[in-house]
Design brief:
The chain has 463 residues and is α/β, with parallel strands linked by helices. It contains 13 helices and 19 strands. Bound molecules: pyridoxal-5'-phosphate.
Length: 463
């Protein structure tokens, strides 16, 4: 171990209510609001068929002020999703820890903090973001299969709520570092329940062949020898079987296995003070096709499987809280007729939204103006030099021309958090919308920022 703590006193403390970046986030004056706009809902466009306004903001006007491509998030829609989940959990001793990896923008994390939502983090960078946004350490859980010793030490140092431990080596490291710091770490074992989440293979995490968690047999051995852990309080269970799950059945199966194990542990004299049921709740990417599970049905499964459990419940939703609250605004650079297909070349690319190229993910794509036009079929692509830089193949769309403003929908989760500067394309701006107003919550990256830290090889050294 490097012996260096990442996060001693220098860690930015909570700043709830403060803008994440004074320059970037000042609230802009009212845009012309769409008075016909319904009360903010998750589908917070002007009407179900018109996409001219989002959370009361005129998107054409917005795109005149902010260069495309940029991401826009509806604060109203995020608050609504949080509210739906909190209502479904009413009466339970349950805490929501937003999976920061889904969208780690400080303004989004501040919305979470303001609603009393904690954080599920997987790196020290996410820890710093969560604390910086005002999420208290006591509401932060640390998941992930590869926490480094430095990261564990840093999280111990700020006193996070709980570590979701995924291997015996990690458990021993946690014990050693907690002893060094003379603190007691609270820990849950992440169970791999060997359940097929029936989702894309790359976001499926609960099968025994996956790298995540440990088997119930292994977890049983950990508890049997838990008394030897002088500085780790092993009193929790954790499970997360995957993401974009569109049926309650995988959740039910996983929770039944966890519940059976919890009962066995209680009988063996191992009290379980917290059960973290993970995230994974799916959303609608393809209107009319994806049928997400309602929060109430999902929580119904938790209530049923853990009916007699009296400890603390934790949930780690990411996508569910933010995906449908985000859109990617992009303009058509040109329409390129090809030999076999017609290409709509956008100014957004796979570096701004990786999901289509990484998972062959579907995103609904619509023009912002809803003027009636003949329909045609396009391959919708970005400018990056990869055939994989394709948002949609053979997609029916109203005929478009250069300069046309389009919306790629449901991009609020795993959009900017997975963005890159591939092809030396700067990171896109992010804008938070709220009932007719907008605030830039990340300005578009400057070229100088993109190359900061790079330098010619000058001072050659020998290790
Ligand atoms: C441990 C853990 N918890 C929660 C989540 C969030 O999942 P989702 O965004 O599908 O809710 C993830 C996603 O990968 C995860 O790995």
């Amino acid at each position: 171990m490097a012996g260096r703590l990442f996060l001693p006193v220098a860690i930015p403390r909570a700043c709830a209510g403060n803008p994440p970046d004074a320059e970037a986030s000042h609230v802009q004056p009212m845009m012309k609001t769409n008075t016909a706009s319904p009360a903010a809902t998750m589908d917070t466009y002007s009407t179900p068929t018109s996409h001219s306004h989002f959370d009361g903001v005129d998107l054409q006007q917005l795109a005149e002020r902010i260069a495309t491509p940029f991401h826009a998030y509806s604060a109203s829609a995020i608050r609504q999703r949080i509210g739906e989940l909190q209502s479904a959990l009413a009466g339970l001793d349950a805490g929501i820890c937003f999976a920061v990896k889904a969208n780690s923008n400080l303004a989004i994390l501040q919305l979470m903090a303001q609603a009393g939502v904690g954080a599920d983090i997987v790196s020290v960078g996410e820890l710093r973001r969560a604390l910086n946004a005002g999420i208290p350490a006591e509401r932060i859980v640390f998941s992930g299969v590869g926490k480094s010793a430095d990261e564990i030490a840093g999280a111990l140092n700020v006193g996070i709520m709980r570590f979701n431990v995924e291997s015996l080596d990690e458990l021993h490291t946690l014990q050693r570092l907690a002893k060094t710091q003379e603190v007691t770490a609270r820990a849950a074992v992440r169970i791999n329940p060997d359940v097929d989440a029936q989702t894309h293979a790359k976001i499926s995490t609960g099968k025994s062949e996956n790298k995540f968690g440990v088997s119930i047999d292994e977890a049983r051995r950990w508890f049997a020898s838990r008394k030897r852990l002088s500085h780790v309080q092993l009193d929790g269970l954790h499970v997360h079987i995957g993401s974009q799950i569109l049926s309650v059945e995988p959740f039910r199966l996983a929770l039944q296995r966890v519940a059976a194990f919890w009962r066995e542990l209680e009988q063996a004299g191992h009290p379980i003070n917290s059960i973290d049921v993970g995230g994974g709740l799916g959303v609608c990417y393809r209107a009319g096709v994806d049928k997400p599970v309602a929060a109430s049905d999902y929580v119904g499964v938790i209530r049923e499987a853990l009916a007699d459990y009296r400890g603390k419940l934790l949930l780690e939703p990411g996508r569910y809280l933010v995906a449908e609250a985000g859109v990617l605004l992009t303009r058509v650079i040109r329409v390129k007729p090809g030999v076999e297909r017609s290409f709509l070349v956008l100014d957004a690319a796979m570096n701004d939204l990786q999901r289509p190229s990484l998972y062959d993910a579907w995103h609904d794509i619509v023009p912002v103006t809803d003027a009636p036009r003949p329909m045609t079929t396009y391959d919708i692509v970005g400018p990056v030099c990869e055939t994989g830089d394709t948002f949609a193949r053979g997609r029916e769309l109203p005929e478009c021309e250069a300069g046309e403003l389009l919306l790629i929908k449901a991009t609020g989760a795993y959009g900017t958090s997975m963005a890159s500067t591939y092809n030396s394309r700067p990171l896109a701006a992010e804008v938070l919308l709220n009932q007719g107003r907008y605030a830039v919550v990340r300005r578009r990256q400057h070229f100088e920022e993109m190359i900061a830290g790079e330098q010619p090889a000058r001072n050659w050294e020998t290790p």
